[in-house]
Amino acid sequence: MNNTNRFLNRTLSFIVGLILAAVGVGVILVATIPQVRDAYKNTAPTVLDNVTSWFVAAPIPGLPHSWWFIALIAALVLLIILLLVFIFRQGHGHTGTLFTNTPTGQGHITVDSKVAEQLMQSALNEHTELVSSRVSIYEVNGTPVLKISTTARRGVSPKQIVEDVEDTLASLNVLLGRDVPAAVQIGGGFRAATSKPIRLR
Fold it and tell me: Which of 44, 50, 110, 186 has the greatest number of CB atoms lying within 10 Å of its CB?
């Protein structure tokens, strides 16, 4: 739930991971398998000569550099800029204001996001059927949305978790005097698998 497209996140992560994995596997093969190491030693000089010839074939008039060199630098700069944009966009979407009421002659009231987060977190901490929980607020299409991430203890039905979260959210809505949109995420994982089971109510 941030300003960065999820597909773009996963695609970029996959490409970077794939490149790093390929480089790592190549280094391991060259270091451990004599046949691969010999093939690398025989092939590397030829590849280096071909790359050098490409650079020599496209010189910049009056300069001791190649157009390919300039293009490579430009591509690297563009890649750095894109990566910086990608990094700085991470985590955006968080909002510090839950809502602001309609201004009146006496002024207006603004409720900070931390109020809802701390109230919900405090209430969820009392539920023994949860191994852990985390509450945060994101802005989705201009509307603050409460994101509630929970890890259910082993043996607890997801339906039970949803009912408990809905009851807690209903109490929060009554306290704030308005309905707060919410997204509930229920997970398991290692902590749930290794936690003590609980007898359902």
Answer: 186
The residue range of the domain holding 79 is: 6-88
At position 127, the amino acid (one-letter code) is H
Partners of 187 in beta bridges: 151
Span 22-66, pLDDT tens digits:
989 988 988 888 888 888 888 888 888 877 777 777 777 776 677
Does the predicted TM-score (pTM) go above 0.70? no
- Phi, psi (5° rounding) for residue 58? -130, 65
173/112 same-domain check? yes
- The answer to whether residues 133 and 151 touch, using CB atoms and an 8 Å cutoff, is yes
Give the helix, strand, coil percentages of the chain, each rounded to 5.
55, 20, 25
Euclidean distance between CA atoms 173 and 167, whole angstroms: 10
Please write the tens of the pLDDT for every residue from 93-111.
667 777 777 666 777 778 7
Question: Other CB atoms closer than 10 Å to residue 123's CB: what's the count?
Answer: 18
Question: How many structural domains comprise the chain?
Answer: 2
The phi-psi region of residue 18 (left if phi > 0; otherwise alpha if psi is between -120 and 50; otherwise beta) is alpha
> Which of 138, 106, 104, 136 has the alpha carbon at shortest distance from 120?
136
The answer to whether residue 29 sits within a structural domain is yes
User: Which pLDDT score is estimated for 3?
Assistant: 47
Structural domain ending residue among the three candidates 36, 64, 88: 88
